[in-house]
Design a protein that fits this description.
two-stranded antiparallel ribbon; alpha+beta; about 130 residues; 2 domains; about 35% helix; 2 helices; about 10% strand
């Protein structure tokens, strides 16, 4: 097993915090612009994720964003969840998730919510807390 020389570990221990500090300083103007833009969002719709600079410019950033969207959110109490695949003849199958109260009268109204992820990222469960 090869080991990293002690001098390399020392350089990393010093260089990594300096690189992180430089990145933080460089990001300050972008964060200020983002903060100003978020001020126009209704207060009850603001979420800390809005401050994260989301970008799909690289495979790596897409992988990170996909991992973030996998965090499980339990359904609210009293809500039944049903997940099905909607088959497609000319495209990929699409997973459809429906939510409903067990005691609701049928037929009843519905809300169709289409996630804006463009089938690139995101999951239906992300909207449960809304």
């Amino acid at each position: 097993m090869s080991r990293t020389p002690r001098s390399h570990r020392r350089v990393r221990r010093i260089a990594l915090p300096l690189v992180a500090l430089a990145a933080a300083v460089a990001a300050r103007p972008r964060l200020a612009r983002r903060r100003a833009a978020i001020e126009h969002v209704a207060a009850d719709l603001r979420n800390p994720i809005l401050y994260v600079p989301l970008s799909l410019r690289s495979d790596r950033s897409l992988r990170v964003l996909r991992q973030l969207s996998r965090a499980p959110i339990p359904p609210p109490t009293g809500v039944e969840v049903d997940s099905r695949l909607a088959r497609s003849d000319d495209g990929p199958d699409v997973r459809v998730v429906t939510y409903g109260r067990a005691d609701r009268r049928r037929p009843s109204g519905a809300l169709l919510w289409i996630h804006g992820g463009g089938m690139v990222m995101g999951r239906p469960e992300q909207g449960r807390e809304l």
